[in-house]
Amino acid sequence: MKTELTERLGIEHPIILPGMTYISTPELVAAVSNAGGLGLLATGRRSTAETRAMIHRVRELTDKPFGVGLPLILPGAKENAKVALEEKVPVINYSLGKGDWITEEAHRYGAQVIATVVTEKHALAACHYGADAIQATGHEAAAHGGAVTSLVLVPRIADLVDVPVIATGGFVDGRGLAAALSLGAHGIAMGSRLAMCQESPVHLRTKDVILQKTIHDTLYTDQYDGMDCRVMSTPATEKVFSQNANILTALGMSLSLAKQMNISWLKMFTSTLLRGPKTTMQLAMMANASETSRLAIEEGDLDNGVQLIGQGLGLIEDLPAANEIIERVVSQAESVFQQHNP
Ligand SMILES: Cc1cc2nc3c(=O)[nH]c(=O)nc-3n(C[C@H](O)[C@H](O)[C@H](O)COP(=O)(O)O)c2cc1C
Fold first, then answer.
1. I need a surface site. Which of 78, 178, 248, 255 has the fewest CB within 10 A?
2. pTM for the model
3. What is the pLDDT of residues 137-146, one digit of tens each?
């Protein structure tokens, strides 16, 4: 299925795997890119050495375009961005921060830049700095979707910008893709749906729980990582939130984060302090939240872990391979359009 987005990114279908921490591994990225979509590699909580090795691994598994996701608010993101730029990754995606310098460097070697935003203001700023596509993330999304639903946010941003828009948040099937294109988007990103495929590293125990959940079983709260964030509601989530709110636990967790990412904790802590007490507390909470996210994904531990997931979880009923999901989404969207334009 061709759109302005597929032309720009050199891909077959307008479907993106977002850079989901712990989930968008080289294997899943390559599976999506090989199926004609675009996989974005997650770099959150990874050291520069790990990021470089993962980029090399993607290149072993696919010769199709792929990208790297950079959540700029996280410690180590700038260093990982430099690795992605050195490696001349064809698509660079940034979120949760200002990506002007990244855009400039990426354009020097001909990469495409996707900016993830949740407001019109940030979409316009990203375009001002030269973004080639805007990923507009609505309220339904897993993790940090905005306050406004995709149904309203996507057409608003599509009206304002003159680059392709990737509708994100709540898109899990071909009806969603058809709807997104009708709203003025040029493609979709699917996080929750592609987290629930065979190649996804989400633990089978957690996948089984997600399959049982309904569209009502998520929480949108700032109690998890200090920002408005959507997570799966489980009997243990409230308990985990109360631990996350504890500054001592969170600071301890930031030590292990610095160790895992091979960066100096003191440097991380002082540069964070300079950004003010609110950011310090938020980063400490994010460090803790990211460990509980790992427990859910890698260990299937939902007593101490928390799973990021979107409202679309209630529409997901199976665990097919990534290429089957992509084929299904494209053919369902095409048949929606045929039904209405016989
Ligand atoms: C487990 C998980 C981890 C995620 N991690 C990140 C991340 O590190 N950076 C980011 O920008 N978005 C992250 N997201 C959000 C996705 O990029 C995307 O915005 C979201 O999944 C879209 O909504 P959907 O799940 O309804 O498709 C994550 C989502 C999930 C489910």
1. 248
2. 0.93
3. 999 999 999 9
